[in-house]
Write a structure and sequence with these properties.
By secondary structure, this protein is of the alpha/beta class. The chain folds into two domains: 138 residues, Aspartate Aminotransferase, domain 1 (Alpha-Beta Complex), CATH 3.90.1150; 239 residues, Type I PLP-dependent aspartate aminotransferase-like (Major domain) (Aspartate Aminotransferase, domain 2). The chain is built from 15 helices and 13 strands. It has a seven-stranded mixed beta sheet with strand order 2-8-7-6-5-3-4, with helices on both faces. A four-stranded antiparallel beta sheet has the order 9-10-13-12. The longest helix has 25 residues. It is globular and about 60 Å long. 48% of the residues are buried. The structure holds 4'-deoxy-4'-aminopyridoxal-5'-phosphate (PMP) and glutamine. Glutamine (GLN) binds next to loops.
Length: 390
């Protein structure tokens, strides 16, 4: 039999799926894969349910329902002052994942270089490679996730086509500062390159940090593709409704990739997300405030056990170092061990680096009910206090 595609052959099942299955198998509290354990706003669920009965359930327009595209443009204007024409600059996709794939397939020519920041979300590199791109990795490392200006500049060359930037950044929980964004913007301008900006955690940012879309920096509107997701902003990760804002010239090829990948998204979910994006600022502030409380709750518990808890500026993830706990093994075996014996699942941070090289840290997801976080901490306390570090 002939071989399957050589890029995809090199990858196994994603770390999210592997550890969620393991958590289920061992009846562990799953603080691995990132998803809230409570659904988002009830009025969105009601709107989605009602739309099934009151509106056609046939293909919506390829670019997305006009009410959602208008809501995306309105949201971007309200929060960031982005001036986007919804008819030419907004596209609805099947989650941010499809938006990323469509953008990368649309912009990359075989042989183009793509600058990415590690640690990174797992779909980035496989899709860059499948599109024929060559990843140029800039490594940020715990505990401070500092962006080294020299390493950043060295990653660029005459062949750089684009940068894939995730801020707030999963799993580092880092929010890029304006100064860091300015450094990236200067390199994009100098190399005539684009930026695909994964901003799915835009509303999960904790004071004093603030989310700045790279697109809003001088000269960047024509170079940036801004991607966000209802899954994160409305705590409905299963809905898979994403949206893209970009200059008309940039959006046109992305829409072509989208039409051949998924073409369109469930119409009732689009209607509900349109309602969500027009919610008052208080809703979005409340989301961040609630999650900040959960972050602090889990951080306190983990610190008391002896984990080294790193700062979470944004996202709903917390990175914790386990070297002080006396465990003899790498982060992958630590996560397996925790799941199997303490019955709590976290993810190894090394899984977010190509070729590893970072060890001793795990990622906990804290968007769970307080009682669940407390129970997870109690289990870990019992394990490390009573049973030792294994
Ligand atoms: N980008 C990042 C950084 C993510 O963490 C995730 C996963 N939640 C996604 C993209 C995918 O988003 P979606 O579920 O909307 O496809
Ligand atoms: N983004 C989620 C995370 O980082 C997982 C998404 C997925 O499972 N594909 O946990």
């Amino acid at each position: 039999m002939k071989a399957f595609n050589s890029v995809l052959r090199g990858y196994g099942t994603t770390v999210f799926e592997v550890f969620s299955l393991l958590a289920r198998e061992h009846d562990a509290i799953n603080l691995g894969q990132g998803f809230p354990d409570e659904d988002g706003p009830a009025d969105l669920i009601e709107a989605a349910a009602a739309a099934l009965g009151t509106h056609p359930n046939q293909y919506p327009p390829m670019m997305g329902l006009s009410e959602l595209r208008q809501a995306v443009a309105g949201h971007d204007r309200r929060f960031y002052g982005i001036d986007a024409d919804w008819q030419r600059q907004v596209l609805v996709t099947c989650g941010a994942t499809e938006a990323l794939a469509s953008a990368l397939f649309a912009l990359i020519e075989p042989g183009d270089e793509v600058v990415l920041f590690e640690p990174l979300y797992d779909s980035y590199i496989p899709i860059v490679r499948r599109a024929g791109g060559i990843p140029r990795l800039v490594r940020l490392a715990p505990p401070d996730w500092r962006l080294d200006a020299g390493a950043l500049a060295a990653a660029f060359s005459a062949r750089t086509k684009l940068v894939l930037l995730n801020t707030p950044m999963n799993p580092a929980a880092k929010v890029f500062t304006r100064a860091e964004l300015e450094a990236i913007a200067a390199l994009l301008a100098a190399h005539d390159a684009y930026a695909v900006c994964d901003e799915v955690y835009e509303h999960l940012v904790f004071g004093p940090h603030a989310h700045v879309p790279l697109m809003t920096l001088p000269g960047m509107a024509k170079r940036c593709v801004r991607i966000a997701s209802a899954g994160k902003s409305f705590s409905m990760t299963g809905w898979k409704v994403g949206y893209v804002t970009a200059a008309p010239e940039l959006l046109a090829p992305i829409a072509k990739a989208h039409q051949f990948l998924t073409f369109t998204i469930a119409p009732n979910l689009q209607r509900a997300v349109a309602l969500g994006l027009t919610k008052e600022r208080a809703y979005f502030d409340g989301l961040a405030k609630t999650q900040a409380g959960k972050r602090d709750r889990l951080a306190r518990g983990l610190r008391a056990i002896g984990f080294e808890v790193l700062e979470t500026q944004g996202t709903y993830f917390l990175t914790a170092g386990f070297k002080g706990l006396g465990f003899n093994g790498d982060d992958v075996s630590f996560c397996r061990h925790l799941t199997e014996t303490a019955k709590v699942t976290a993810l190894p941070v090394s899984a977010f680096y190509e070729g590893g090289g970072v060890d001793g840290y795990v990622r906990f997801c804290f968007c769970k009910r307080d009682a669940v976080l407390d129970e997870a901490v109690a289990r870990l306390e019992h394990h490390f206090g009573g049973a030792g570090g294994g």
